[in-house]
Amino acid sequence: MHTALVAGWAGSMALYELAVFDPSDPVLDPMWRQGMFVIPFMTRLGITNSWGGWSITGGTVTNPGIWSYEGVAGAHILFSGLCFLAAIWHWVYWDLEIFCDERTGKPSLDLPKIFGIHLFLSGVACFGFGAFHVTGLYGPGIWVSDPYGLTGKVQPL
C-alpha cells in the first residue's frame, strides 16, 4: 500500500508540475525557480522530452517516444494502481489458514519458496531497469555533466 501511495503521488505530482511548467526559457527561468520538485529529478535520470513537443535542452521534438515526462508519470500512476490492487488482494487473503489442506491441516503453499521467488523477480526487474536505462540500451541513458553544469547532456554510461 505504501509503494502504491508513493508511486501515485510521484505520478500525479509530475503531471501537475507539467501542467504549470513553462519551458520557454530554461536559462533565465529554470524549472527549480518555477517551484518544480519532481521534474528536476526526472531530468537528472535522462528524461528530457515532452509529448507537448518541447525538450528541456531547448529544442523542439517531433517524436519524444513513450518515456517522456508524461509517459513516466503515467507509468507511475499505472503501477500505483497495480500495487494498490496487490495490497487489497493481500489484505483480503491475510488469513493463511485459507491455504491449508483441510485433510492434513498442513499449508498447501510453500511460503518461503513463494517469498523467495517474489524477491528474486523483483530484484531482476530492478537490476534490469537500472542496467538498461543507464547504459542506454532501452532508455535515454543518464544526465552527465561537468562540475559546473555547463556541458550537460544525456548519454549512455
UniProtKB/TrEMBL annotation:
Can the keyword Transmembrane be found in this entry's annotation?
Answer: yes
Could you tell me which InterPro entries the record lists for this protein?
Answer: PS_antenna-like, PS_II_antenna-like_sf
GO cellular component terms given for this protein: photosystem II
State the UniProt keywords alphabetically: Chlorophyll, Chromophore, Membrane, Photosynthesis, Photosystem II, Plastid, Transmembrane, Transmembrane helix
**One Gene Ontology term of the molecular function aspect:** chlorophyll binding
Topological type in the membrane? Multi-pass membrane protein
Protein name (Swiss-Prot/TrEMBL) = Photosystem ii cp47 reaction center protein
Q: What organism is listed for this UniProt entry?
A: Phtheirospermum japonicum
